[in-house]
Amino acid sequence: MKSLILTCLYLFKDTLHRWKERPASPLSRILVAFFLSLCALSFLANYVLSAKMLHDEIRKNGADLIIVFDTVRDGDPSKKNLLQHELPSLYGCDVLVLNDARAGVAHVGKTVFPILEYNMESCSFLSELGLEDVATVLLYNPSRSPLQAGPCTVTIADFDFSLNASPLPEGHLLGRLYPSGVILAPEGTFSSGQEAPMENCRYIIRVHEMTAARIRSIEEVLNNMVRYDGSMTMVQTHVGLLDRLEVLMGNQTECRTGFSLGIAVIVGILLTALASMEFRQNEYVYTLMKSFGVRPVLLIMAFIVENAFLIGLSFMGAVWAFMKTQRIVLGEFFKLGNSVLTYADIRQDLWLLGISLAGCVLLSSIPVAFSACRPIGKVLK
What we know:
Elements: H1 2-21, H2 26-60, E1 65-73, H3 80-91, E2 93-108, E3 111-118, E4 137-140, E5 150-156, E6 159-167, H4 173-177, E7 181-186, E8 198-207, H5 212-229, E9 232-236, H6 239-281, H7 283-291, H8 296-333, H9 347-372, H10 376-380
Parallel strand pairs: 3-7, 4-6
Antiparallel strand pairs: 1-8, 1-9, 2-3, 2-8, 4-7, 5-6
Helix pairs in contact: 2-6, 2-8, 2-9, 5-6, 6-9, 8-9
């Protein structure tokens, strides 16, 4: 083991010595491309992860939801079938229908819980809550309520009864809409058997694609329905916030593109200088090859292939090194916590940086092309 370590140290020292003697070498191109690509990936990943965290935080706070409050008078047609069945097939969304129970609200101590009724078609939407086992349940927010899971005494008007309490899962949409908690029950649980003059319905629409265009199109459909039937319906969205978010993301994308091009320009200048120096070091060898009939275009193509291989190898090494060390880089230097990125998250930036480096390879071959086409007599003078 000791001899192996000594051998590796000797080879490393010998490599550094050769590099000092011949600074314009393939190793120089590899190191330049590797370290600049690694720095570029670190800064670009900071932008990407910041944008991703902002996007997730906005979604977590309900920006992907459209809330419709609809009051249906006795004898008026309901929008339930249209919104719960037709809308998801047209716009790619999930719809939860909740009705205000006639009992109104319930009290647990001093805490007030609204009572909402759901239909059985919404059970799949509420699958995380275990409504198949316990149909009527009190859902509370563990961070805001002193309640514990299990039976608790609930008061409606002057009547007390026992109801099972269960914590809301973290990040559940009902937790966004009802931070203190809510009581869910199947339709008709708290009805008195008499028809009510009006019914209040809440349609919670969660879009699959959280974009301003998608939410605005659904909002326009809902507003047109309200305008045509003259119903008492209110539509609530966060489309204004999403518009500002998309402007911000567009500006950030332009900044990332400019940064990638700037790194590409720096790499291109350095590679061009190194390539020119290296070609001049070996100019007599290339001239001798031309004197034996090797065409200059073959020398240029050989250089481009060699350069593309070395830069591509350096770029892949930089990507691998970044993916292995990103938790340290992003967490310690950019203070972004323990969040990490996947290849899918930075695919666009990898493509952009890779194409920029490919342009650098072609740019660095320009002085080589001029040198390779020099007449043999001028070189041998």
